[in-house]
Amino acid sequence: MQYILRENEELERALRKFRRKVQRAxxxxxxxxxxxxxxxxxxxxxxxxxxxxxxxxxxxxxxxx
Length: 65
Prior knowledge:
Layout: H1 11-25, H2 27-33, H3 40-64
């Protein structure tokens, strides 16, 4: 990931833009997720819970329309 500094651009502003770019790319989220080993059974359980949350959210949205 890189951010090219423009001419006369403040360093603080460039840093903010770079951080935003990194966050949007999901790099921090990925780092946190891979910080510790996750057993395959735990990963499966986490994915099932996330899918259930998405399903509930979709169901709620459909009922309110």
